[in-house]
Amino acid sequence: FIVFAALDLVDILHPKSESAYLKVVDRCMHWMVSAYVTPSGLRMMLLHDVKAEDTIRQFFWETHEALVKV
C-alpha cells in the first residue's frame, strides 16, 4: 500500500525532473519509496528502509539495462 500510494507522487514529480531517477518520493514511518521512470514511461519503484542513494540508483540502472536487453 505504501508503494501504491506513492504512484501519484511519481506522476507529479516525473514531468518536473530531468532525470529518470527520482530519488525518494515518499516516506511512511521508517519506510522510503524510491522511483525510476524509463523513457517509455515504465515506473519502477522500490520500498526500502535504508537510505543508500548510489546503491539504489545503480540497482535501477542495472534493472533498466536488463529490461532493455530482454
Looking at the structure, what is the overall shape? globular
What sequence of helices (H) and strands (E) makes up the elements? HEEEH
| Overall pLDDT metric | 94
Secondary structure: number of strands = 3
Number of helical regions: 2
Major beta-sheet overview: 3 strands, antiparallel
Radius of gyration: 12 Å
Share in helix: 40-55%
Describe the protein:
With 70 residues, this protein is an alpha+beta fold. The protein has helices at 2-13, 53-69; strands at residues 21-28, 31-37, 43-48. Strands 1-2-3 form a three-stranded antiparallel β-sheet. The longest helix is centred in the C-terminal third of the chain and has 17 residues, at 53-69. It is globular. The N and C termini lie far apart (29 Å).
Can you lay out the helices and strands and say which pair or pack?
Elements (H helix, E strand, L loop, with lengths): L1 H12 L7 E8 L2 E7 L5 E6 L4 H17 L1
What are the main properties of this structure?
70 residues, alpha+beta, 30% strand, globular
Give a short overview:
The protein is of the alpha+beta class and 70 residues long.
